[in-house]
Write a structure and sequence with these properties.
alpha/beta, metal ion binding, transferase, about 40% helix, TGT-like_sf, glycosyltransferase, globular
């Protein structure tokens, strides 16, 4: 099975019920992708990811991080292990980001030129260089179903002039990424010419918080005729209403027959809103990061399990949630685990939060299936 995307139904509000077919499986959209930064969704084993949430279907697709896997354990080691799927024992679909956002976050440790980005490792200070071509080589070695073009993410706030300059670099790098990828994609560890199996490369729309630049960026990338398009450079400190506007304005200029992916968002109510607007794919570290800090998501809003009021609470996190944590454990026990510094706290909190996110998307898919916006 190669790559294909089908839209079964589009609601009045723009939300789409679709299906993304990838070499490692079928993904029902709209979908939320838990983040497995270093080939691991923090505190959650792969067996649990396959079971939690979404009516028992579990996690359909996860995201892994090019920058982190390049530094440790190294992409060539992962290639020798048969690719990241085999390395981490994950047989379902996976996406790798390009490393652009991580390099962007190293603002004091990087130097940008038209050729690429020189940066120092956050681990040991060693010097490295990422070009679009090198990002493609690393992602091909990792072997996720979907790779992303190498891009530059501009800081917020940034002037129109600075944002347009950065956007121009992103477009040039996208073309170089595509050219190199097309030449070398048959080097993916699981490539099969007979079955037409290989990776797919998505573009990333930039343009900061300027609608005219978002339009220009989307149009330039659509000309490259890539299989899918992401909206990048959001959720970097701007107000939520600005994020929503930039997504809405960008969606207007993206193809209706290709998947649309917003990178790095957001809270449960945000991912639901964006899915109903017509976004097909989203990812965020928030479910596990919040869980490790004792913040849980429920149908009644956010719950801080650290609070003393839960010390003798015999109820589940969320009475309407059917996840394995809510079926078995009380708030009192979960508060005790967190207060005691028990590692199990991070596991159970993260499992519940991931289940809540996946169930949110399952509910939205059901609504879209029935034609409700």
């Amino acid at each position: 099975m190669g790559f294909s995307f089908e839209v079964d139904r589009t609601a009045e509000g723009g939300g789409r019920r679709g299906r993304l077919r990838l070499p490692h499986g079928v993904v029902e959209t709209p979908v939320f992708m838990p983040v497995g930064t270093a080939a691991s969704v923090k505190a959650v084993p792969q067996s649990l990811l396959e079971e939690v949430g979404a009516g028992g279907k579990g996690t359909q697709i996860i995201l892994a991080n090019t920058y982190h896997l390049y530094l440790r354990p190294g992409h060539e080691l992962v290639r020798r292990m048969g690719g990241v799927h085999r390395f981490m024992s994950w047989e379902r679909p996976m996406l790798t980001d390009s490393g652009g956002f991580q390099v962007f976050s190293l603002s004091k440790l990087r130097k940008i030129s038209p050729e690429g980005v020189e940066f120092r490792s956050h681990l040991d200070g060693s010097k490295h260089f990422f070009s679009p071509e090198h990002s493609m080589d690393v992602q091909i070695a990792l072997g996720a179903d979907i790779a992303m073009v190498f891009d530059e993410c501009v800081e917020t706030p940034a002037t129109w002039e600075r944002t347009r300059e950065s956007m121009g670099l992103t477009h040039a790098w996208a073309q170089r990424s595509k050219d190199h990828f097309e030449l070398h994609k048959d080097r993916v560890p699981w490539f099969s010419e007979r079955q037409e199996q290989t990776q797919s490369l998505f573009g990333i729309v930039q343009g900061g918080m300027y609608a005219d630049l978002r339009k220009e960026s989307a149009e330039r990338l659509v000309e490259m005729d890539l299989p899918g398009y992401a909206i990048g450079g959001l959720a970097v400190g701007e107000p939520r209403e600005v994020t929503r506007e930039m997504i809405a304005r960008t969606l207007e200029h993206l193809p209706k027959d290709k998947p649309r992916y917003v990178m790095g968002v957001g809270y449960p109510d945000e991912i639901e809103e964006y899915a109903r607007m017509g976004v097909d794919m989203m990812d965020c570290v928030l479910p596990t990061r919040a869980g490790r800090h004792g913040l849980l998501f429920t149908s009644q809003g956010r719950l801080n399990i650290k609070k003393k009021e839960y010390a003798e609470d015999q109820g589940p996190i969320d009475a309407t949630c059917g996840c394995i944590v809510c079926r078995r454990y009380t708030r009192a026990y979960l508060r005790h685990l967190f207060a005691s510094g028990e590692p199990l706290s991070a596991v159970l909190n993260s499992v519940h939060n991931i289940a809540f996110y996946l169930d949110t998307m399952e509910r939205v898919r059901g609504d879209l299936e029935r034609g409700a916006s």
